Amino acid sequence: DIHMQYERVGADVTMKCGSMDWDAAVTWTANGTDIDESHLNGSYLILKNVDLSQSGQYSCYEGSSWHLKYQTYLRVGTPPKEPVLMCRSNNYPKGFYCSWHLPTPTYIPNSFNISVIHGTKDMVCEKDAVPKNRCHIRYLQLFSTVKYKVTLTVTNALGKNFTTLTFDEFAIVKPDPPESVVAKPVPNNPRRLEVSWQNPSSWPDPESFPLKFFLRYRPLILDQWQHVELSDGTSHTITDAYAGKEYIIQVAAKDNDIGTWSDWSVAVHATPWTEEPKHLTTEAQITETTSASTSSFMAPPTTKICDKGAVVGSGAMAVCWTAGLVVAAYSVLFI
Amino acid sequence: MAAAESPSAALRRRDLCSRGIRLAGKMRADVVDLLDAYVEQQGLDASASVAAVEGVPLAAVERWDEQTGTQRLLENLAAYRAFRALLAQMLEEQREQLGEADAGLGRALAAVLLQVSAFVYHLEELLRLESRGIPGEEGDGPPPPPRLSLFEQKLRGLGVLRELAQWAVRSVRDLRQLAKPSAATSAASGTAPGLAESP
Fold first, then answer.
1. Which residue in A113, A17, A127 sits closest to A66, CA to CA?
2. What are the chain B neighbours of A168 within 8 Å (beta carbons)?
3. Each residue's pLDDT tens digit, B49-67
4. Whole domain around residue B118: which residue ranges?
5. Strand-pair partners of A270
6. Where exactly are the transmembrane stretches of this chain (chain A) (predicted)?
7. Nearest neighbour of B59 by CB, restricted to A143, A205, A257
8. Closest-CA residue of chain B to A143
9. Is B113 helix (H, G, I), strand (E, B) or coil?
10. Model pTM?
């Protein structure tokens, strides 16, 4: 029989060689390697102040016959510290989930038990397959002032610990960040950026439970964010961007009435449209624009001149310049 | 078979729902401020649990998404009528206890009472639009409770304001459901609009 033995880091461990007498001649091995006799007290193996590296398989053999008399698997670890527990509703009003982890590893197996009480009623938190340390609950009631009490107990062979969270229904509502954030320059507008996004897909009913949004943006060269709060819609036009500067933009979401703001969305980058610098061009290289714009200058801000494949949001208005005289004449016609 | 709602009735309903949502939103903000002031001035612990008090309508509801439009309106109406009476009683008790010493709290209570009364009227208008009879007020709520001690009055007041704050959020949600076009025919036919199941 192989035994399993759990011991705390720093403990002194004594292993007996099964039913062998104290004065029997034995040999102990650790993971197949003989253990020096200095660690023996008679036939007992003494390990002082054990550390994690001493986890392994320990075997005891009778001295002359080398018959295996005892075998144990030693796991050195620690009792659990108070677990970290978090509960959140990112799919209100369907339900909420709780997830947990240990602040420091124990190095031995742990089991977790979670209990949820709403008033006097026990609720079942169904464990998720993935991730493991998570369970979810469906709301049976909405708009209750009665708090939820969630207790998580973690147990291992060396001890147990627990933590409790108490909260009300509204306090834990926190949507996931908005998805598919896109920022584009606006043609012929050097100070504008058009930003759009979508509701997080985990939010089940945005029509009945609308979200509001918080947009923040700044040029990469500055640290200060600009903020805009938007009570409806999933798009916004920034109108005070610095011309020609690359911006970083993020969006967060919150239920219109309750709870807290989501984390910030993935950041997107965009640079406002910029006027293409004038070059000396020949008459043969001028191509006509199709837009009704009075400006004949046009090039996507982040792309090379006349590189149509990289044009973003500029439509069919790429123009290549050739001669200076033709440029002047053209300008007079269209400005 | 549900009768189709006339375009003018649909517009009127959406308009009443929109205004009701704004009213409920404002009411909630004011109730939350009032709650903070009440807790402080009454010397209460904000985190104290208050057992359900007789006569205070609980906002908590099961299967909220399965309610019909009419159910939502009737439950809201019964609740806010009860709050109207409870707030009037709190105002009276406030004046008896403190006289003019705490006029600010009294004014805040009176302001919320006014909003609750306006909301009751709003709900009655919506019910008329749904061609539903408006229940008489005699049937609303239990008879007045026996005289409470000062401390019991304070705790009841805390319970009243907390539930009112919850109701204000619930009412916003209820009115949003009512404002949906599908709510019109289902309210008339008595079937629940239901929420679409997310994938």
1. A17
2. none
3. 776 777 899 999 999 999 9
4. 14-59+66-135+148-181
5. A247
6. 310-333
7. A143
8. B60
9. helix
10. 0.78
